[in-house]
Design a protein that fits this description.
Layout: E1 2-7, H1 12-26, E2 30-35, H2 48-57, H3 63-78, E3 81-84, H4 118-131, E4 137-141, H5 148-158, E5 164-167, H6 172-175, E6 189-192, H7 197-209, H8 214-217, H9 221-233, E7 239-242, H10 244-248
Parallel strand pairs: 1-2, 1-4, 2-3, 4-5
Antiparallel strand pairs: 5-7, 6-7
Helix pairs in contact: 1-3, 1-7, 3-7, 4-5, 7-9
Length: 252
């Protein structure tokens, strides 16, 4: 079976379900991680917010190239293939009519989906409709945490009308104060994948490969590894959700 995990950024799929991906590749399935917001920043100066993130990540203008390289290493540790799309991260995008940065501060990352980005949804929808193999099983983020780029990916993935599975966005799933289970449609079914100790280790190693991003959520690699293990022990990272069609067409 061919699986395609849609990852808004160059770490989301690895963080959210790296153990599940590792288990599927070990079972002989073909798995690809398609990172949507993996494009270079557009020409011109970076916003003050983007510059502050680069400083924290300890990278310079080549931040996206560094992150793509990290993603290649991460995917290798999971046994998955990497594909990178050319859409820039929202921290680099600008509002089309004004040229102002789309994101000014951290709170802007989690706003309701902006009208200025609706054309980007249509563009991504068309790219996915052209690129996705007909018999592949596509897995989209649930958009827990409401990050703009996660919303972009889910909106575009749902428009072609093909069956989808969904994964819980980690670590937002353990950070949000809302009852995230409400995001699960009552008519959906659950696919559960047992994750072995080897799968857990591959998950942790894949997350660690995204070295520049560790500081986004943790103070060290060891803290990240402990957090993922705790999430795993609580039953996280092993489930996908979707309607009956998404499961039955793949005999899961």
């Amino acid at each position: 079976m061919q699986w395609i995990f849609l990852s808004p950024h160059l770490d989301d799929a690895a963080l959210s379900c790296g153990g599940l991906i590792a288990e599927r590749t070990r079972m002989g399935d073909s798995v690809e991680i398609w990172t949507i917001c993996a494009g270079d920043p557009p020409p011109g100066p970076l916003s003050a917010f983007a510059q502050s993130l680069h400083k924290r990540w300890r990278v310079r203008r080549n931040a996206v190239a560094v992150r793509r390289s990290e993603d290649q290493q991460s995917c290798q540790r999971l046994g998955a293939a990497a594909r990178h799309f050319a859409i820039p991260d929202c921290i680099y995008r600008r509002i089309p009519l004004t040229g102002d940065p789309l994101i000014i501060d951290n709170d802007d990352l989690f706003q309701p989906f902006p009208d200025s980005q609706r054309r980007l949804v249509d563009s991504l929808r068309d790219q996915l409709a052209t690129a996705l193999p007909l018999k592949s099983l596509v897995v989209s983020p649930l958009t827990l945490g409401n990050h703009i780029d996660h919303q972009l990916v889910r909106r575009a993935a749902e428009q072609p009308g093909r069956p989808l599975l969904y994964y819980a966005d980690y670590p937002y799933t353990v950070q949000t104060n809302s009852a995230w289970a409400q995001s699960i449609h009552p008519g959906w079914q659950t696919f559960t994948q047992a994750i072995s100790p080897d799968g857990l280790r591959a998950w942790q190693e894949a997350a660690a490969a995204h070295r520049s991003q560790i500081s986004t959520f943790w103070t060290s690699v060891s803290e990240m590894e402990a957090a993922i293990q705790s999430y795993y022990e609580a039953g996280g990272g092993c489930k996908l959700w979707g309607d009956r069609n998404a499961l039955t067409i793949t005999n899961l």
